[in-house]
Every structure is written in C-alpha cells, then in structure tokens.
Design brief:
The complex is a heterodimer of chains A (115) and B (115). With 115 residues, chain A is mainly beta. In chain A, 0% of the residues lie in helices and 53% in strands. In chain A, the strands form two sheets. In chain A, strands 2, 4, 5, 9, 10 and 11 form a six-stranded mixed beta sheet that branches. A five-stranded antiparallel beta sheet of chain A has the order 1-3-8-7-6, with no helix packed on it. Classes of the chains: A mainly beta (115), B mainly beta (115).
C-alpha cells in the first residue's frame, strides 16, 4: 500500500545551524506533499506544502524540494531557532478532486535545537 | 479565520462503552476526514466523507467505527464498543475540495482514553 518513509527519527542541531529532513513515498499518483509541525498535545500545523508540478518552494527560513522521478522530498530549515524544536511530519496525498485524497504521514522527526 | 472545532477535548471511557466524537468542519468545506494518532506515533487516516457518504476508509476503520453528518454542521465519529487500543488522539479535518486549495484543515483533536 501507500507508504511514506521519513529520516531521521531524531535530529539535534545547534541553534543557528540548518536542519534537513528527508522523505520518500511509494505512490506514483501522489501529487501533493505537505509538511507539518506538531507540538506536544497539539494538532499538526501545516508549515509548507509543495505540489508535483513544482520542484522547489521557499518560505522565509523553510524550503522544500521535490524529486518526482526519485520519489524523494526534503524539508530544509535554515538559521534554526529554539522555537523550531518540535516533531515534524512529511506527508503525501493524491490531492483533492480525487476519491482517494487521504494524507499519508511519515513517522515524524523529533527536532531538538541546542542552545 | 474559520477553524475546525472538536468536542470534547478529552474523553475518558471504559472498555466496551460507546463513544461519539464530534466535529464542526469549516462551513463551506465539502470534504471531511477523521485521523487518529496513538501517543508518540504518526498520524493515521481513518475515513473520508463526501456528499453524505464514505469516500474511503482504512483498515483501522472496521465495523466498530461509523461516521455521520447528522445536520448541516456536525460530523461525528462513533466507536461502538471501545477497546484499550482505541486510546489515541482523534483529529477531524475538512477541505474545500477545490483544485486551488489542497490543504486539509485539522481540528485541535479529542484525546480518547479507554480504561
């Protein structure tokens, strides 16, 4: 079935350094790739997303890249800050207007920003 | 900004009891979803709902689960006879179902504890 693999499961970076989280997906029909930040006990919060017709997208300190051929996508956070500490989930979906538009989540990456 | 709301925020129930989790999706959205997240694990898709019927359901969504949109605003998830392993955070989500907007909007969740 559809699957999203995410690495690493835990990541510790010095404040001010960059963090990179990588994901792969199995469903060739996936065309929407959201990234979520989740703090303890809270809902997943969409931080950035990318569609399959785009290879890269940036929003301030956050950027995502997508390689559809290799079925890889990545999240890059630059100039990390203490408030970036959280669990990050990558995900994949076939997008709306499909009967099958469920979001498949990766297992998450716990990001620790070290002072 | 409109938000998905869920009640209750926390529900404690005994094994074998029925529970109903309630959600109010964003008013002009057409697609509705339930996801669950066991503590410390990834978010998992349960069911999607459109035009007053289930669009898709996962293996988790067995005969003990049902969904309903009893009126124009509420969307409910019922678990008929709860098991210990049903303990999780349950998130409702909704989306407009438009090609211009792929995002699914998550509610704050209901923490279900089965004892």
């Amino acid at each position: 079935g559809e699957n999203v693999e995410q690495h690493p499961s835990t990541l510790s970076v010095q404040e001010g350094d960059s963090a990179v989280i990588k994901c792969t997906y199995s469903d060739s029909a996936s065309n929407y790739f959201p990234w979520y930040k989740q703090e303890l006990g809270k809902r997943p919060q969409l931080i950035i997303d990318i569609r399959s017709n785009v290879g890269e997208k940036k929003d301030q300190r956050i950027a995502v890249t997508l390689n559809k051929t290799a079925k890889h996508f990545s999240l890059h956070i630059t100039e990390t800050q203490p408030e970036d500490s959280a669990v990050y989930f990558c995900a994949a979906s076939r997008g709306p207007m499909n009967r099958d538009d469920k979001i498949i989540f990766g297992k998450g990456t716990r990001l620790h920003i070290l002072p | 900004e409109p938000e998905v709301t869920q009640t209750p925020s926390h529900q404690v129930t005994q094994m074998g009891q029925e529970v109903i989790l309630r959600c109010v999706p964003i008013s002009n959205h057409l697609y509705f979803y339930w996801y669950r997240q066991i503590l410390g694990q990834k978010v998992e898709f349960l069911v999607s709902f459109y035009n007053n019927e289930i669009s898709e359901k996962s293996e988790i969504f067995d005969d003990q689960f049902s969904v309903e949109r009893p009126d124009g605003s509420n969307f409910t998830l019922k678990i008929r006879s709860t098991k210990l392993e049903d303990s999780a955070m349950y998130f409702c989500a909704s989306s407009p179902g438009l090609a211009a907007s792929y995002e699914q909007y998550f509610g704050p969740g209901t923490r279900l504890t089965v004892t």
